[in-house]
Amino acid sequence: MDEGVVDRLSALSDDLLRRILHLVPSKEAASTSALSRRWGSLWRSSGAVDLAAAIRYGHDEIYSYQAMQETQRAAEDAFCRAAAASLAAFAWTPTAATPTSREVAMRLPAVTTLVLALCGGLLGQGAGQNRIWALEIDAPRLQSLVYKGLLRQFQLRSAATELARADLHFLKDTLCYGKERTRELFWQFVQSLSSAKALKLTVNAGLKEIAAIGKARRAQLLCPLPNVQRLELEGWHHPTSTTAAVAIANLLHCCHALGDLTLKLSDVPPDSHKDDGSYYASDRLDYTRSIDRFIRRRRSSTISMEDSNSSGVRYHDDVHDIPGLSGHSFACLQKSLRRVSLQFRLGDSSSSCLGPRLVKFFAQNAMVLE
Amino acid sequence: MEVDKGKGEAEETRKVAEADRDTVTLKSSDGKLFEVSKEAAARLSTVLAGMIAGGSIDDNGTDLKQIGSEALENVVDYCNKHANSIPSAALISSSISFNTAPFKEPEEWERKFVDRLSHDALFDLVEAANFLGMERLLDVTCHKISEMMKGKSPDQIREVFNIKNDYTKEELEEIRQELAWAFYDD
Fold first, then answer.
1. Residue B140 domain flag
2. Total structural domains in chain A?
3. Which residues of A lie closer than 8 Å to B, measured between beta carbons?
4. Range of the domain at A132
């Protein structure tokens, strides 16, 4: 190769340099910022996502626990560095995204779809290190967010006005924050995504964990979610507990313009599911029967707003009211809620009576249900 | 200058025989003429495609003032080799945006093609390809440059490309700290 005295590379246009950096592994691409001023932060806009670090677990035989831990730590570090590199190359600006950092702030000016999978789960499990960390994302053009991970402090810095859907799946946490803090984190998380039109929430920890009970708590935690048109809530509750209904009520309360609601409830914690194949089969019959019953009942009675507010007294059957839902009025039930889909999975005891009660509640109270 | 295909050879004078030829004549900045198949030119270069479609091709040699004869010869050589290699639609980057178009690894002959180039000739070719809007040739040449950077420290990259470090010691240290993960030795 001829060693010219002229720097031909730096003389290329920014576009060409980005194009070249795009093909360089993230690590080297980032290190080009140390070449000269010309190179500065060019690599950040090169869109490089080449994850150069490969994680190898137990490549050789591992003899001691300590060795295994070291391997894992090294793999974690490699992962963090590679992830930081690729994320940074995607115009993220990790302020302190070193492997030990606890707060990550990311700026993603151009990103429209963001998938954050296994947040915290991957790094926190195993070695018993439960890390408390916070995530701050600045993505003004975000349209779709998928978050699967532990419930942690989450904030969207600039309002993502184009946010169409947010899919949040909160895994059960081994770290115990205390109930109040869990609730707070959940509602803050949801609030930060208040511009979303479709919201899917999966809560592995039990729905009562997120329920805001009592006037004071509601005032403190709940926030309007005026844009949410579709809501899907999946979670479980204790067979005898009706606190889950409070969580549902909280969400109905927040989503003024809700048009489509899907509830997938179970009275068994998700990790105890062994056979997911016959998931809803056992209670489908009951469910259909109750639907029929309530639809018939609804037709036979003239339902007005007064009726719905005093519904519990009017119908004498074995289905009782639901604390949190019955007797309250919800804007979305009066005006916008057109579709409700309910799926229940009953545990061995079959003692849950939340399902039929919910069916009753929606049949009676949703004014514009189709 | 040896070129294996006759079409790529410099031709000093050329009489225009037919009005509707299947080649186009290109003129380098230093006045040398090169002939290339119209089909290959239109397929591989968005700029030449536009000129052909727009009728702005000069039969006596279309002036390409930005491109020297060595680079233009390489461009024409590449077009001919490309036309002779197994035609593959996927070879041409379809998208104008390199961020969205999936990058296809250079083929064996393309590697050889850029490997034989001198340092300066490589950069001349990058600039020519860029000027002519030859996406695939840009991919291949940029890939070659990226390979020259792979696995190297900033110091080594500076040496290969003669890049002058204009940072102060303090600034450099700041960058190294900010991007510690990138300077971490495996």
1. yes
2. 1
3. 1-13, 16, 19-28, 30-39, 47, 53, 78, 80-81, 84-85, 88, 97-98
4. 103-365
Mutate to test the interface with A, among B178, B179, B186 (most CBs of A within 10 A): B179
Contact A22 B167 (CB under 8 A): no
What CATH number corresponds to the domain at position B68? 3.30.710.10
Q: What is the pLDDT of residues B45-103, one digit of tens each?
A: 999 999 988 888 888 888 898 899 999 999 999 999 887 764 444 444 443 334 444 57
In a domain, residue A65? The reply is: no
Q: Which of residues 46-85 of B touch A (CB under 8 A)?
A: none
Residue A190 included in any domain: yes
Q: Hey, is the C-beta of B166 within 8 angstroms of any chain A C-beta? A: yes
Contact B181 A81 (CB under 8 A): yes
> Which pLDDT band, with edges at 50, 70 and 90, does A48 fall under?
very low
The DSSP letter of residue A341 is E
Whether complex ipTM tops 0.90: no
Residue numbers in A near B142 (CB within 8 A) = 16, 19-20, 23
Query: Is B43 inside a domain boundary?
Result: yes
Q: In the 3-class helix/strand/coil scheme, how is chain B assigned residue by residue?
A: CCCCCHHHCCCCCCCCCCCCCCEEEEECCCCCEEEEEHHHHHHHCHHHHHHHHHCCCCCCCEECCCCCHHHHHHHHHHHHHHHHCCCCHHHCCCCCCCCCCCCCCCCHHHHHHHHCCCHHHHHHHHHHHHHHCCHHHHHHHHHHHHHHHCCCCHHHHHHHHCCCCCCCHHHHHHHHHHCHHHHCCC
Q: Per mean pLDDT, which range of A90-104, A232-246, A333-347 is the poorest? A: A90-104
